[in-house]
Amino acid sequence: MSTSRRQFLANTGKATLAVGLSQILPANILLAQQQATIGFTQQPLPYAFNALEPVIDALTMELHYTKHAAAYAKALNEAIVAEKVGTTTTLEQLLGNISKYSTKMRNNGGGHYNHELFWSTMQAPQANNAPYGKLADAINASFGSFATFQTKLSDAAKARFGSGWAWLVITPNKQLVVTSTPNQDNPLMDVAEVKGTPLLGLDVWEHAYYLKYQNKRADYIQNWFQVIHWQQVAARYEAAL
Length: 241
Ligand code: MN
What we know:
Elements: H1 3-21, H2 27-35, H3 58-82, H4 91-96, H5 103-120, H6 133-143, H7 146-159, E1 164-170, E2 176-182, E3 197-203, H8 210-213, H9 217-224, H10 230-240
Antiparallel strand pairs: 1-2, 1-3
Helix pairs in contact: 2-10, 3-5
This protein binds manganese (II) ion (MN).
Manganese (II) ion binds at residues 64, 68, 115, 203, 205, 207-208.
């Protein structure tokens, strides 16, 4: 049985378990369990391609999910077989040791992880979209205010030259920081300048916005704050604490 097949079965088992637990656990705990690890196979998009309109158009979502992200997942699984990654290794562990593997593993392991996180932390546009509860308190404590955090993340995304990502990260010391990475790197990687667990990531590759926004990356960044799924981000925060 292939690694991806085993991973698929493992994920299926987790999904079954989550359904059983859903009768007794609050939603945020279930979300935290589901978000604790990201598997090696592409999960179904948790909404329709047009769900994020008008912020992100349906054609961009369809191409991004079915072509770009699917290609990362496929190439990651090729690299896992070629480089004999053990079947008990998690994607998070693999990324934490990424300097020991090929460029193909780095680009596609990061590409797969980053997109799975990206899909899961977005939802239909929300008016006055903002974090709440413990995560909001932590953002205020770390950045001064939610508005200042938005500015920092936007600036990191705008300043990323070429392709890459901007991140909200919780460091091993449990501090919230904003950072950005080139290409498909991410803060889980041992090669990252700023290391930690990504809570939220913004894809600023041109494939993420060019059909609708053309060269106006700043407009895409500004609008994207409407589709952040703060409940999911909070669940990742709780899981990382
Ligand atoms: Mn992308």
